[in-house]
């Protein structure tokens, strides 16, 4: 006796349903993977002088810590280097301070789509990993050849040339691949904010306390030393 139509098992419908569920599951997994990839900061710069949690590149080993958050396209950062750089470097040399560079990228939108700020910050991490002693000379040289806001900025080849002249080893692939670009993006979100909740560059801290810069290294830095 044949089964009635009402009791017949529709295997085609079941398999279609299973296939639809499978597609939905696969699509969901794909979305999760895509989202994870988008939020993945990529590799962190592994070096003795780099703190992979804070992004700090440390120069010197003094008891007091001066941290600077800099964007290589920021003209005021160049002014900061001109006013404070010599004092900071002397304090590093005489063992008074540890100087921390935090290269960040807040001005990518001002380089005609070339992401110069990110590329330059990435390059500083490349130098720190490859040749730690070239970090400060590279920072100084990058400011000396700082491009104007609203221009494409320096090319990768120009950045590599500056690093080479500053005494760095081979960082070519690290620069062109933007190896630490994602790390730079993540660290840019950590700039200490002012009392109005704003974050910008240059920003400096002394032993973790944000400094309201006056333009006087004696007042802002030297008078705070232990």
List the helices and strands and how they pair.
Elements: H1 11-39, E1 57-59, E2 64-70, H2 75-93, E3 97-103, H3 116-130, H4 135-144, H5 156-165, H6 172-176, H7 181-188, E4 203-206, E5 209-210, H8 217-220
Parallel strand pairs: 2-3
Antiparallel strand pairs: 1-3, 2-4, 4-5
Folded structure, characterized:
With 226 residues, this protein is an alpha+beta fold. The protein folds into two domains: 11-39; 57-224, Glutaredoxin. It is built from eight helices and five strands; from the N terminus they run αββαβαααααββα. The protein has a five-stranded mixed beta sheet with strand order 1-3-2-4-5, with helices on both faces. Strand 2 (64-70), helix 2 and strand 3 (97-103) form a beta-alpha-beta unit. Helix 3 packs antiparallel against helix 4 and helix 4 (135-144) packs across helix 5. Mean pLDDT is 88; it is low at 1-14 and 16-38.
Q: Which characteristics define this entry?
A:
single chain; 226 residues; alpha+beta; Glutaredoxin; five-stranded mixed sheet
What would you report as the Rg, rounded to the nearest angstrom? 25 Å
Extended strand count:
5
Q: H/E order of the elements?
A: HEEHEHHHHHEEH
Give me the secondary-structure category: alpha+beta
Extract low-pLDDT stretches. 1-14, 16-38
For the biggest sheet, the summary is: 5 strands, mixed
Percentage of residues in helical conformation: 40-55%
| Count of DSSP-assigned helices | 8
Number of domains: 2
Average pLDDT over all residues: 88
Strand order, largest beta sheet: 1-3-2-4-5
Shape: globular
The N- and C-terminal alpha carbons lie at a distance of 99 Å
CATH topology of the largest domain: Glutaredoxin
Tell me what the CATH architecture of the largest domain is: 3-Layer(aba) Sandwich
């Amino acid at each position: 006796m044949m089964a009635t139509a009402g009791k017949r098992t529709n295997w085609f419908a079941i398999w279609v349903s299973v296939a639809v569920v499978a597609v939905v599951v696969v699509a969901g997994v794909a979305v999760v993977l895509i989202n994870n990839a988008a939020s993945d900061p990529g590799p962190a710069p592994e070096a003795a002088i780099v703190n992979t949690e804070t992004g700090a590149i440390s120069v010197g080993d003094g008891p007091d810590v001066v941290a600077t958050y800099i964007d290589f396209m920021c003209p005021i950062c160049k002014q900061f280097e001109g006013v404070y750089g010599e004092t900071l470097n002397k304090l590093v040399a005489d063992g008074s301070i540890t100087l921390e560079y935090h290269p960040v990228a807040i001005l990518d939108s001002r380089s005609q789509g070339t992401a110069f700020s990110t590329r330059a910050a990435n390059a500083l991490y490349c130098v720190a990993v490859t040749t730690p002693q070239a970090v400060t000379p590279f920072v100084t040289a990058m400011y000396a050849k700082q491009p104007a806001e609203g221009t494409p900025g320096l090319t990768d080849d120009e950045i590599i040339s500056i690093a080479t002249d500053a005494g760095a080893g081979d960082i070519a692939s690290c620069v062109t691949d933007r190896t630490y670009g994602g790390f730079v993006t993540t660290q840019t979100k950590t700039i200490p904010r002012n009392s109005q909740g704003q974050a910008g560059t240059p920003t400096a801290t002394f032993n973790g306390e944000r400094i309201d810069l006056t333009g006087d290294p004696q007042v802002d830095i030297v008078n705070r030393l232990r």
